[in-house]
Amino acid sequence: MNSEVVSTLHLKTNDTFRHKFAYSSGIAHARFFLILLLTFITLTVTMITINVQGQTEPATKLYTTISVEEGDTLWDIAKGHYSNEYPDFNAYIDEVKQINGMKDDNIKKGSYLVIPYYVD
């Protein structure tokens, strides 16, 4: 081949290569941007979902009066009225004692106790 034909052929090949490279590079950038966008959307939706799930209204604390029956203990009363708002039964019993002005765990048949409880 003469040098002019080879040079023209070389230029056409380079132009085709550049065009294909620029096209594939643009697609790569578009794919990267799309993946980045989808990741951002997924993370945003996840964070919103977690935030909404964590925003529950606190339970309402109410009080009732019970009559102490034969054989009742503060522990038995706690088992019947305890809820997850307290860390443990002892915390609940301590509150019952405090509300009722009790110094110890002794309760008597026929007496009345004010008992806290929670409703959703």
Quick summary:
The chain is α+β, with helices and mostly antiparallel strands. The chain has helices at residues 3-54, 74-81, 89-99, and strands at residues 60-67, 112-119. The protein has a two-stranded antiparallel ribbon.
Overview features:
2 domains, two-stranded antiparallel ribbon, Membrane-bound Lytic Murein Transglycosylase D, Chain A, single chain, alpha+beta, 120 residues, 2 strands
User: Radius of gyration from the CA trace?
Assistant: 38 Å
H/E element order: HEHHE
* Total of domains: 2
Spans where pLDDT lies below 50 across 5 or more residues: none
Within CATH, the superfamily of the largest domain carries the name LysM domain
Strand order across the largest sheet = 1-2
Compute the separation of the termini in Å: 90 Å
Task: Give the biggest sheet.
Answer: 2 strands, antiparallel
Structure annotation, total helices? 3
Basic shape: rod-shaped
What's the mean pLDDT score? 81
The helix-and-strand class reads alpha+beta
Architecture per CATH nomenclature, i.e. the level-2 architecture of the largest domain: Roll
At the fold tier of CATH, the topology name of the largest domain is: Membrane-bound Lytic Murein Transglycosylase D, Chain A
